[in-house]
């Protein structure tokens, strides 16, 4: 059995998706109020002495970076060579932060209240 914890983070950013048909609205410059969920996991016998998978407060480093580097930015510039879809953003964040948080199992990115994409190991 495993424990899972999750914490939600918010940022606003613009993007423009390449490769879509000319009449697709997401090919135009637009923005979202993004919600990112970081999910961390541990096996039953892996909780720390307090009983945490990891202190939610340890995710502050991620929040500071998100605020400094991603919030109110143009995602096409920030993520570099990838089309900034929700799927690609989830993978980009996962790969960037799995070293800092070894318990990280999934990153979920929601562009709207009705949609999300997740990258999970
Ligand atoms: N699989 C994906 N599909 C789409 C993505 C994506 O990242 N992954 N992104 C977009 C757009 O950037 C944007 O998120 C629009 O999404 P959509 O749900 O179509 O938004 P709407 O508000 O226009 O949808 P309604 O149906 O009007 O609620 C598109 N697809
Ligand atoms: Zn969009």
UniProtKB/TrEMBL annotation:
EC class of the enzyme, as a word: lyase
Swiss-Prot/TrEMBL catalytic activity: 7,8-dihydroneopterin 3'-triphosphate + H2O = 6-carboxy-5,6,7,8-tetrahydropterin + triphosphate + acetaldehyde + 2 H(+)
Cofactor: Zn(2+)
Keywords: Lyase, Metal-binding, Queuosine biosynthesis, Zinc
InterPro entries per UniProt: 6-PTP_synth/QueD, 6-PTP_synth/QueD_sf
Domain of life per record: Bacteria
Residues forming the catalytic site: 26 (proton acceptor), 72 (charge relay system), 111 (charge relay system)
Residues reported to bind Zn(2+): 15, 30, 32
A Gene Ontology molecular function term of the record: 6-carboxytetrahydropterin synthase activity
GO biological process, one term: tRNA queuosine(34) biosynthetic process
Keyword Metal-binding in annotation: yes
Pathway annotation from the record: Purine metabolism; 7-cyano-7-deazaguanine biosynthesis
EC assignment: 4.-.-.-
Gene3D superfamilies given in the database record: 6-pyruvoyl tetrahydropterin synthase/QueD (3.30.479.10)
PANTHER family linked: 6-PYRUVOYL TETRAHYDROBIOPTERIN SYNTHASE, PYRUVOYL TETRAHYDROBIOPTERIN SYNTHASE
Family, as annotated: Belongs to the PTPS family. QueD subfamily.
Protein name: 6-carboxy-5,6,7,8-tetrahydropterin synthase
Gene source species: Streptomyces roseirectus
């Amino acid at each position: 059995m495993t424990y899972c914890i999750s914490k939600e983070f918010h940022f606003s950013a613009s993007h423009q998706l390449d490769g879509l048909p000319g009449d697709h609205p997401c090919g135009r410059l637009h923005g979202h109020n993004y919600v990112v969920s970081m999910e961390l996991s541990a096996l039953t016998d892996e909780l720390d002495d307090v009983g945490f998978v990891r202190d939610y407060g340890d995710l502050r480093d991620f929040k500071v970076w998100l605020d400094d580097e991603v919030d109110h930015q143009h995602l096409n510039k920030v993520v570099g060579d990838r089309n900034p879809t929700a799927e690609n953003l989830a993978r980009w964040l996962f790969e960037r932060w799995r070293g800092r948080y070894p318990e990280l199992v999934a990153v979920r990115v929601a562009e709207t209240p009705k949609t999300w994409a997740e990258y999970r190991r």
